[in-house]
Automatic annotation (TrEMBL), chain A:
Keywords: Membrane, Transmembrane, Transmembrane helix, Transport
Biological processes per GO annotation: transmembrane transport
Pfam families (UniProt xref): BPD_transp_1 (PF00528)
Protein name in the entry: Sugar ABC transporter permease
Membrane-spanning parts: 20-37, 83-106, 118-139, 151-169, 181-205, 226-248, 254-278, 290-307
Gene3D superfamilies, per database record: MetI-like
Membrane topology classification: Multi-pass membrane protein
Organism of origin: Haloferax elongans ATCC BAA-1513
Protein family: Belongs to the binding-protein-dependent transport system permease family.
Places the protein is found: Cell membrane; Membrane
From TrEMBL, chain B:
Name of the protein in question: Sugar ABC transporter permease
Transmembrane segments: 52-74, 114-135, 147-167, 215-236, 268-287, 319-342
Key words, A-Z: Cell membrane, Membrane, Transmembrane, Transmembrane helix, Transport
Positions of the ABC transmembrane type-1 domain: 110-342
Keyword Transmembrane: yes
Compartment list: Cell membrane
The species this protein was found in: Haloferax elongans ATCC BAA-1513
From TrEMBL, chain C:
Protein name: ABC-type D-xylose/L-arabinose transporter
Main localization category: membrane
UniProt entry tagged with the keyword Membrane: yes
Top-level lineage group: Archaea
Domain ABC transporter: 4-239
Role of this protein: Part of the ABC transporter complex XacGHIJK involved in the uptake of xylose and arabinose. Responsible for energy coupling to the transport system.
GO cellular component, one term: ATP-binding cassette (ABC) transporter complex, substrate-binding subunit-containing
Listed GO MF terms: ABC-type transporter activity; ATP binding; ATP hydrolysis activity
Gene Ontology BP terms: carbohydrate transport
Entry's localization field: Cell membrane
Length: 319, 350, 379
């Protein structure tokens, strides 16, 4: 750090002493903050305004006492609630599944040595860069052919999906036709998440000490035991990175949901679809739209604000 | 042969394990051969590792490569409307590709795809590098600045599109309100519908008479969302350069600008390549954003291959035609990614 | 308990289609309870040999046996061996206790209490019983070293394999651990194969040492035998610090000659070199004597080039007046100045003669003045 400190010294990190370069630097940084936050700030302000207010006042100005309302948020929450529940039911299992499978694959492809391994690795990594359009039609065909509801009915119909809801009594979620779509989406997202999670875990497992894994092998541990007792406990930091990254990706997806959920709407809609429908109307209710955007983005925003550093590590592809 | 004999031949019963037993030499060596073949198979790294990578590989391989193959096959058929595709190899032809080549919409979408790909990637890299250098100047509250610049990247295309549709609103969107506020009324425009006359330039093929703002409005919004990502990658690259090099450049009397140009930037090649590849892939996936902003038909000036593919397949039910466009899109992605992967492979970094 | 035998063991690697020989037809029997040091320069195949014994590398040709049991086709966990690694290879997320328990949990059916008492007993023996609750990251290098040893010892294996276990320690701790390790091995009486590139370690620790070069076993012998009766030029040069001096000589009947000097041979030596035209004459630095005058046989006038004082002795670099230099070690109290002219005596009974092309020893020094600790036949 010493050198950068030196540079900082030269540029006059001491803000009290007037240093034009330093002033310009901080001015630029703050200006950029305004640029990056302005859509969010004006969106939030608009979401807190009545229709009359947002049409007449500048979008980034806070609402006046008369023009303040929380109604857009309550409308947005009402409209999006079930979709958000669907998104959670989708994103949580799909995230865990793709992280686990990626971790398995990375272990098998990193901590063993065999011929042809690099070819398999290349196929995994190339999978990251596939434009999803290239698989959309087969996906829609596949999920039209495979009847997940029927296949899983014997397992899921009775127990897993019936829940007690106050007021409504017992709700048989399994009898809703939409759970099959959600399961289809979970499998799809888990499968397409494997390449990136494998890459992330592989970059981490490459740094594990070979001697340590050999020691475990000599200690009598099988390949599976080495994974369970050594590799898995040591991958906790990478699981955090991968889970956060995958959760964001899956939560934010629109395309697969459009294609896999029949007719793109109804009880199976996920948050992105519901938000698009909320905002796609002819009446330009920007306040409700903005509130909806915040509600739909809330989980990923929370994850980002709470675990921003891990998220950054994930996107930079490092452990 | 009884089970016990077999066991003894395989040397599993312990008593036959001494190797000096009464077995004739050839059987003993045969036994050794079988034993070592069996155990070397069991112990081979490929076999030991397979339970871990094979199931994910099959799942991923089916969905990624199986689906791509299926898509290619569909593109050879005449699959359209409600009729199911007929997978009859004798009826396979390249009709859908010929159709694309003679389709004006396809060429416009291809042009727009490349404009988006190149300008979005270039601008995001430049913006990200600028941000990274600013953030790397030993500033206070570095974490705060970095977090804010990367914040849009955590949002979905859908949310970004919703925000920017409001930003670009002609009457009360932030951009026009801001421009009018600082007295630049004449710049306030219909960003999502307007354009400027190009005059004589439109004589060039594929250059329209009016340059619509639409695509550039899209690129600008995406720049807002993704420049933070490029920044993070460049920051990692900058932090990997040893401090000595800054020091050496200082001692050599290089100015800050020269130091970055001559010493630092050349070492960011790897960061540039990996960020560029990822950004291009995002650009190819920008479908969600356009779909939310403009529906499934963004019009000739902003239509890209991915929106066109979706429209043809899922709105017009021209499944085979959509597949053919998807194959083209896949080949574009391959052209971007294959050299990158090959380079990584050559440098042993896969 | 049984002998560990390497029977014509070879290891080939495939390097882009061309066959690379890492270990070439190595045969050696390590006796029950013996401490054998595998020594050689880096890349000589010593680690590969050790890893073949461990089962971490497959054997391309030949057999490895423990007693009469063939073990080269068994998976590592069935070989009854324990290994200590250069990097210690401790499990960073487990406590010292967890590290030491791991092998017993995975390879035996012992009850928890039994494992615990074994771990505690071993930890006490190594003086790390107060560290059992700590994680490896909280330990010093020396303590980690002991945990790595403890992890191997607690399993009570037939064979210990050690891959440069001391090379990450600082010099002082290393010599201390050397003694301790040796004592421990003696107490436990477990057959040990120890790999090192450091000839001092090899000399001081091994019951016998096996010197490897380019994948080939050069000599298996007691340290003193390897020192005094090297099988070839490589061993002669590798063992001993500073290295043996070598001179390339032409054979002229009863005299050897090179550009700088001639060396007359006794009839016995003449016999030894009679089959060769070119030989290498070797003399250990401590056998070169600096004498007052040049009248005696095998005494040459030289100029002192550099003196490296080491306290107990001085390494004196001598010069025949041309480019050829050689080293003599003399007592630390002896004053020699650079530039001085001195007479170097190269006594014939201390001279080694090697065939120049094959490097094989033709004649080793006479051992009348040296006592060898029970020399053993070469395997």
């Amino acid at each position: 750090m010493s050198v950068r400190d030196d540079i900082a010294d030269q540029l006059g990190v001491d803000l009290e002493g007037f240093d034009p370069i330093r002033v310009v630097l901080y001015g630029t940084l703050v200006g950029l903050v305004a640029f990056y936050l302005s859509p969010l700030e004006s969106g939030l302000m608009t979401a807190l305004k009545t229709e009359a207010e947002f049409a007449t006042s500048p979008p980034f100005v806070p609402p006046t006492a008369d023009g303040f309302t929380l109604e857009p948020f309550s409308v947005a929450i009402d409209t999006l609630a079930s979709a958000i529940l669907n998104s959670i039911m989708l994103a949580v299992p799909a995230t865990i599944l793709s992280a686990l499978l990626g971790s398995f694959a990375a272990y098998g492809l990193t901590n063993f040595e065999w011929r042809g391994q690099l070819g398999v690795v290349t196929l995994f990594i190339a999978g990251i860069f596939i434009p999803y359009q290239a698989v959309l039609i087969p996906l829609s065909r596949l999920w039209a052919i495979v009847n997940t509801k029927e296949l899983l009915a014997p397992i899921l119909d009775i127990t897993l999906f019936s829940v007690q809801v106050p007021v409504l009594g017992t709700v048989e979620l399994a009898t809703h036709p939409h759970y099959a779509s959600i399961i289809n989406l979970i499998i799809t997202h888990a499968a397409y998440g494997i390449p990136i999670t494998t890459l992330l875990f592989r970059s981490y497992y490459k740094k594990l000490s070979t001697e340590m894994l050999e020691a475990a092998r000599l200690d009598g541990a099988s390949a599976f035991t080495v994974y369970r007792r050594i590799v898995l406990p040591l991958s906790t930091p990478m699981f955090a990175v991968t889970l956060i990254y995958q959760f964001t990706q899956i939560w934010n997806d629109l395309l697969f949901a459009l294609v896999i959920i029949p007719s793109g709407s109804g009880p199976a809609a996920v948050a992105t679809i519901a938000l698009n429908e909320l905002t796609g109307g002819i009446i330009q209710t920007f306040n409700t739209q903005m509130a909806g955007a915040f509600v739909a983005a809330l989980p990923t925003l929370l994850v980002y604000i709470l675990f921003g550093d891990k998220f950054a590590k994930g996107v930079a592809g490092e452990a | 042969m009884s089970l016990n004999t077999l066991k003894r031949l395989l040397g599993r019963d312990g008593s036959g394990g001494s190797g000096t037993g009464p077995l004739p030499d050839d059987i003993a060596s045969l036994r050794g051969g079988i034993q070592s073949a069996v155990s070397s198979l069991r112990e081979s790294e490929a076999v030991r590792s397979a339970p871990f990578w094979l199931p994910p590989f099959l799942l991923m391989g089916f969905f990624v490569y199986g689906a791509i193959g299926w898509n290619v096959i569909i593109s050879f058929t005449d699959f359209a409307g409600l009729q199911l595709p007929t997978y009859d190899p004798t009826a396979f032809d390249l009709e859908m590709y010929r159709r694309a080549l003679s389709d004006g919409q396809f060429w416009l979408a291809t042009r727009n795809t490349f404009v988006l790909l190149v300008s979005f990637t270039g601008l995001s890299l430049a913006g990200g590098l600028g941000l990274a250098i600013l953030v790397d100047r030993g500033i206070r509250f570095e974490n705060w600045f970095r977090t804010i610049y990367l914040l849009p990247f955590s949002l979905s295309f859908v949310v970004t599109a919703v925000f920017w549709r409001w930003m670009y609103n002609f009457d009360s969107g932030v951009i026009n309100v801001f421009l009018r506020g600082i007295g630049l009324d004449f710049l306030a425009s219909k960003w999502l519908a307007g354009g400027v006359e190009l005059g004589a330039l439109s004589a060039i093929p594929l250059v329209p008479e009016t340059l619509q703002f639409k695509l550039f409005a899209v690129i600008f919004a995406l720049l807002w969302q993704f420049s933070g990502y490029a920044m993070v990658v460049y920051l990692a690259g900058l932090r990997a350069i040893p401090d000595d090099q800054y020091e050496a450049a200082r001692v050599d009397g290089a100015s800050t600008v020269r130091m970055y140009r001559r010493v630092i930037l050349p070492q960011l090649r790897a960061s540039t390549v990996s960020a560029a590849v990822v950004l291009m892939v995002f650009a190819l996936k920008a479908f969600d954003f356009l779909y939310v902003m403009f529906g499934n038909n963004p019009g000739p000036t902003a239509d890209i291959l991915s929106t066109m593919m979706y429209r043809q397949a899922f709105a017009a039910n021209e499944w085979a035609y959509g597949s053919a466009i998807a194959v083209v899109l896949f080949l574009v992605a391959l052209a971007v990614v294959a050299p990158y992967l090959y380079g990584e492979y050559r440098r042993g970094e896969l | 308990m049984a002998d560990l035998t390497l029977d014509h063991v070879s290891k080939f690697f495939d390097d882009d289609g061309s066959k690379v020989v890492a270990v070439d037809d190595a045969s050696v029997t390590i006796e029950d309870g013996e401490f054998l040091v595998l020594v050689g320069p880096s890349g000589c195949g010593k680690s590969t040999t050790l890893r073949m014994i461990a089962g971490l590398e497959t054997v391309s040709e030949g057999q490895i046996r423990l007693g009469d049991d063939r073990m080269d086709n068994k998976p590592p966990r069935d070989r009854d061996i324990a290994m200590v690694f250069q990097s210690y290879a401790l499990y960073p997320h487990m406590s010292v206790r967890g590290n030491m328990r791991f092998g017993l949990e995975e390879s035996t059916d012992m009850a928890d209490g039994e494992i615990d008492s074994l771990v505690e007993e071993t930890a006490e023996m190594l003086g790390i019983d107060d560290l059992l609750g700590r994680k490896p990251g909280e330990l010093s290098g020396g303590q980690q070293q002991r945990v790595a040893l403890g992890r191997a010892i607690v399993r009570d294996p037939e064979v210990f394999l050690m891959d440069e276990p001391l090379s990450n320690l600082d010099a002082k701790l290393r010599s201390q651990m050397r003694t301790e390790l040796q004592r421990l091995q003696e107490d436990l009486g477990v057959t040990t194969v120890y790999v090192t590139h450091d000839q001092t370690e090899a000399m001081t620790m091994g019951d016998r040492i096996a010197i490897l070069n380019d994948g080939e076993l050069q000599q298996v012998a007691t340290p003193l035998e390897a020192y005094h009766r090297p099988a070839n030029r490589f061993v002669a040069g590798f063992i001993g610090e500073p290295s043996m001096n070598f001179f390339q000589m032409e054979v002229h009947g009863d005299t050897l000659a090179d550009d700088s000097f001639t060396y007359s041979l006794s009839p016995e030596s003449e016999d030894a070199v009679s089959g060769s035209e070119h030989v290498t004459l070797g003399i250990r630095p401590e056998d070169v004597e600096l004498v007052a005058d040049g009248s005696a046989d095998h005494t040459y006038e030289t100029t002192v080039d550099v003196v490296e004082p080491m306290g107990n002795e001085n390494a004196v670099y001598l010069d025949f007046g041309d480019e050829s230099r050689f080293v003599a070690t003399v007592g630390g109290m002896r004053r020699v100045e650079a530039g001085e002219t001195v007479y170097a005596h190269i006594p014939e009974d201390a001279v080694h003669l090697f065939d120049a092309s094959s490097g094989d020893a033709l004649k080793n020094r006479s051992l009348e003045s040296v006592e060898l600790a029970e020399p053993e036949p070469q395997a």
